[in-house]
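Hi R.,

Here's the chain you asked about this morning:
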Amino acid sequence: MANTSAVYARIDAQLKQNAEAILAKLGITPSALIQMTYSQVVLNNGLPFDARIPEKKPTAIGAMSRDQLNAELRKGVESFSQGSFTADDIDRALAKEFGI
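And here is the predicted structure, written out as tokens:
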């Protein structure tokens, strides 16, 4: 038998129940998940997922009709054409608003 070591953690009971229900559907035990997670930490030399506050993302345009989207794009092109904004102004605004 492999040399193993116990890991103990206290977590929210509802979180545990919800996670274990999902793991059961996947056929993965909590112990196997911990083993896989630790293996990924070692393999990646860090967390196996992004641990940061998500940046603001632009609003999805999928809910807009083609006419609405075209109207908004025309407004932007007209603003740019009239010199209301420079390309640098637009880049700064996008970076500030959306982190891009």
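One quick note: Residues 1-52 form a domain with the Arc Repressor Mutant fold (CATH 1.10.1220.10).

Cheers,
M.
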